[in-house]
Write a structure and sequence with these properties.
The chain has about 240 residues and is α/β, with parallel strands linked by helices. It has a single domain, classed as Rossmann fold (3-Layer(aba) Sandwich). It is built from 7 helices and 11 strands. Strands 1, 2, 3, 4, 5, 6, 7, 8, 9, 10 and 11 form an 11-stranded mixed β-sheet that branches. α2 runs parallel beside α4. The protein starts with 7 loop residues before the first strand and ends with a helix.
């Protein structure tokens, strides 16, 4: 909670491309604390701290804990993209899961509702890409609607610290289409920034993939914007 008694929210985005629309739409400014990729501002009187947490559950957990030890907040929101498992999910559609499952440990976490969207369905957090048809079908049978790579890491820390948390994930691709594979993941540094060298090597080695990569970039940008819009709308409901 802010010093004036108003609500304060920590908004986490795995990658810089997911943080950018949040920063722009909320007119957030770089924090004077000097910490990397930390921005602050207010939305209808609600205090906002926004930061990137990196790609993968391990770094997400570590970064979330550091941020929560540095900033006093009332709740945490993860805003970003996800890969669809449920064939009914459209590109750009926002999912607010009720349950987040850690693929490695099997731990399940329940989200806390924020805003008008009622949490529903299950999302899987995994450190490895899941693209095989049999694997994707197995997830569908378990009721998993989408996959992402940070939710359970954030959830574990928030649960331990007793802080409400919520996920707003927008669909950027489909898990069974094979557009996102290990070569695409290699284009990202751990902090979520682009590994330019790896990207150039992929394009040179496999120029036929350029068209799909450009579509993925467009869809990811659109999805990040949709997630940001849903996140901001939810934050506004905290205004007193």
């Amino acid at each position: 909670m802010g010093t004036d008694g108003s609500a304060r929210v920590l908004v986490l985005a795995p990658m810089r491309s997911e943080l950018r629309p949040l920063q722009k739409k909320m007119s957030l400014k770089r924090s004077v604390s000097g910490q990397a990729a930390v921005y602050e501002g207010r939305v209808d009187g609600v205090g906002v701290v926004a930061a990137t947490i990196g790609v993968g559950p391990a770094i997400a957990s570590k970064t979330t804990r550091r941020l929560l030890e540095s900033f006093r907040v009332d709740r945490v929101v993860v805003s970003g993209i996800a890969g669809a498992v449920d064939l009914g999910l459209r590109i750009g559609e926002v999912m607010v899961p009720e349950t987040v499952i850690d693929a490695e440990t099997g731990a399940e976490y329940r989200t806390d509702r924020l805003g008008a969207i009622e949490p529903a369905g299950t999302i899987l957090t995994t450190s490895e890409l899941i693209t095989g048809p049999a694997e994707v079908e197995a997830l569908r049978r378990r009721g998993v609607r989408a996959v992402e790579m940070e939710g359970s890491g954030v959830a574990e820390v928030c649960t331990q610290m007793g802080i409400p948390w919520t996920l707003f994930r927008s669909i950027s691709d489909r898990a069974d289409e094979g557009v996102v594979d290990d070569s695409v993941l290699a284009m990202l540094n751990e902090d979520g920034s682009t590994n330019v060298g790896a990207a150039l090597r992929l394009i040179v080695a496999r120029p036929g993939r350029l068209k799909n990569l450009m579509k993925l970039a467009r869809d990811s940008q659109s999805a990040a914007g949709a997630a940001a819009d849903a996140t901001i709308a939810a934050i506004r409901t905290l205004a007193g």
